[in-house]
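Sequence, please.
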C-alpha cells in the first residue's frame, strides 16, 4: 500500500521490500487476524547491502525509482469520466486550498502507480498498510490494501516488496501493519500495482497486487498498529 497500499505510497505508499537477513534481536512478528506467511527474498542479502553501500544517495532520494504504470494517454480520459471526476472531487475535498493544477498532478501521480485504471468500489471494511518496522504511516498516503491481499502476496511473490512494487528506501526485514477504518461507507479506487524499477534496472519489482487508492484520507480513521510481519 507506494505504504499497503500503494497498498503503496502511499500503499501507499510509504513501504518496500525487506531482503536483509532478520537480526537475532529483531522483535517476534505478531499474528494478524489473517495469518501471513513469511515471503522469501528476491535478492541475496549481501547483494542488497552492496547496493545500499554504493548507491545510498540515489536510494534515499528515490531519484532512480520509476513506475511502469499508466500513461497520460490513459489517465487523462479517465479523469474526464464519471469515476475520474469523483476521484478529483475527493482530492479537492482533502485539500481545498490547493490549486487545481496541483490537484490534477496528484491525481496523475496516484493513478500512474497502477497498471490498470481503477474500479470504484463501496467500502465499509478495514484496509491495511505496511511500513518498515518502527516507522509510522503518513497522514496523506493514499496507498492501502487488504489483509487478504497481503496474505496472497506472501504466498505468490518473492517478497512483499515484489508484489507491491516497493522502493529500496523502504526495504526492511520486518513490517508493521497499520489498519484504518472508513467513517461509514466510502468509495475506494482499486487498481493493480504497476511494475517498478530502480538504479537503472538493477532492482526490479513485478507488482501485480491490488492497491486501494484513497484520495481523501479525511474519510478514514487514524492508522492503528495491529501487528508485525516478515517480508
Amino acid at each position: 500500500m507506494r505504504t499497503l497500499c500503494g497498498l503503496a505510497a502511499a500503499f501507499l505508499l510509504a513501504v518496500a521490500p525487506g531482503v536483509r537477513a532478520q537480526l537475532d534481536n529483531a522483535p517476534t512478528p505478531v499474528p494478524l487476524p489473517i495469518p501471513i506467511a513469511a515471503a522469501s527474498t528476491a535478492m541475496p542479502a549481501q547483494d542488497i547491502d552492496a547496493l545500499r553501500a554504493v548507491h545510498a544517495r540515489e536510494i534515499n532520494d528515490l531519484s532512480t525509482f520509476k513506475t511502469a504504470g499508466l500513461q497520460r494517454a490513459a489517465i487523462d480520459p479517465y479523469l474526464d469520466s464519471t469515476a475520474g471526476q469523483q476521484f478529483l472531487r475527493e482530492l479537492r475535498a482533502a485539500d481545498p486550498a490547493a490549486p487545481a493544477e496541483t490537484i490534477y498532478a496528484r491525481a496523475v501521480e496516484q493513478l500512474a502507480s497502477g497498471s490498470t485504471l481503477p474500479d470504484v468500489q463501496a467500502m465499509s471494511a478495514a484496509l491495511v498498510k505496511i511500513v518498515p518496522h518502527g516507522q509510522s504511516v503518513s497522514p496523506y498516503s493514499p496507498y492501502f490494501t487488504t489483509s487478504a491481499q497481503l496474505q496472497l502476496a506472501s504466498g505468490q511473490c518473492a517478497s512483499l516488496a515484489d508484489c507491491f512494487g516497493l522502493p529500496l528506501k523502504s526495504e526492511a526485514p520486518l513490517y508493521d501493519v497499520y489498519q484504518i477504518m472508513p467513517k461509514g461507507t466510502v468509495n475506494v479506487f482499486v487498481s493493480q500495482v504497476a511494475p517498478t524499477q530502480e538504479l537503472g534496472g538493477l532492482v526490479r519489482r513485478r507488482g501485480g497486487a491490488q492497491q486501494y487508492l484513497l484520495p481523501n484520507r479525511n474519510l478514514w480513521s487514524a492508522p492503528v498498529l495491529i501487528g508485525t510481519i516478515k517480508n
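The radius of gyration is 17 Å.
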